[in-house]
Amino acid sequence: xxxxxxxxxxxxxxxxxxxxxxxxxxxxxxxxxxxxxxxxxxxxxxxxxxxxxxxxxxxxxxxxxxxxxxxxxxxxxxxxxxxxxxxxxxxxxxxxxxxxxxxxxxxxxxxxxxxxxxxxxxxxxxxxxxxxxxxxxxxxxxxxxxxxxxxxxxxxxxxxxxxxxxxxxxxxxxxxxxxxxxxxxxxxxxxxxxxxxxxxxxxxxxxxxxxxxxxxxxxxxxxxxxxxxxxxxxxxxxxxxxxxxxxxxxxxxxxxxxxxxxxxxxxxxxxxxxxxxxxxxxxxxxxxxxxxxxxxxxxxxxxxxxxxxxxxxxxxxxxxxxxxxxxxxxxxxxxxxxxxxxxxxxxxxxxxxxxxxxxxxxxxxxxxxxxxxxxxxxxxxxxxxxxxxxxxxxxxxxxxxxxxxxxxxxxxxxxxxxxxxxxxxxxxxxxxxxxxxxxxxxxxxxxxxxxxxxxxxxxxxx
Length: 462
Known about the structure:
By secondary structure, the chain is an alpha/beta fold. Helices cover 44% and strands 18% of the residues. The chain contains 17 helices and twelve strands.
């Protein structure tokens, strides 16, 4: 049993013929550089078997929408829906593999390898539903748009690529077929996942078990789960080091011991900067996850931030991510709640310097400042603002290390923006005098980010 989904096989009678060219739309919203990275792997992925998370997403009631609004208005609506789908898939590292008249098929983990594909896919699904809800509110129409999403994880065979993403790129196998069946079962506005995806993400998301379902083409009934939300008791799902671990790591004891030695040094007052470098799938995040389970790590405060695949277009994203975790700012917090949490967190550490630290940390995080805090940053721009932000962050981290050793884990820095790299390099100097350990996790071959950090750390922290 197999199911193939070639990217270019759309007939002239397809509903997509009414809209702009599907592949042009996909490429228009690809994160900067992703197209070239995909195409550069053409020779590597021909006929390759990979574990991939597959997502199918379509709109319920597309045909009645065309009848009710007429083709022109209906496809205008669909173009806006496509933008939501493509953005939310790419934002979490997925690749749109096929566009139909009323939905998409996407892959997480191919052609670009991802260490946490199932988690990314489910976060993308939740973001799609939120985006569609916002779109419905903006339309103010009675006919609400609802998406049905199906997700499955397993082995697929990834095909070859043409020279412009129009060619032979496709994924085939039972995994693809089952993801499509999950979408077919899903109620409008919901996401259904199969058992493999549930097992890999069950500790990070809330699900409703739906029992075993008869699936066409599958011999025995299989368990199906409805995705509800991320777990409320977590700051957010860690898309890197806090993935579910079902077994002891094998073959990395030496590297793990070396990392733990740096933790012990920090606990005893000696800071350091460590780089964990490796290609996707080599176990970088797993190594960090194992380190966090060690007893020595419990003697320090651990803060984590990570860059995302479109991070070059998002200034300071991993730094902001780190401070959101520190202040326990959740994704659903509004502006007032988020600022209140940051205020409380900064006040606990820097009560005497609150007026000098809070405005600049909040500015870095893109928060709207009230009253006296807005006045403090008024008229400050450019290099002067950057220096004051750096000073505020240094004060905050220094105060934190006076209370407890600090471990700062920055993941996926190969995707970070230049501003984040420069800021981190400035903060690394704290390790010379403070009990702070920086752990930088990234892939090799990214000259402006990961390679730059590797070179700088080697020169300044031999």
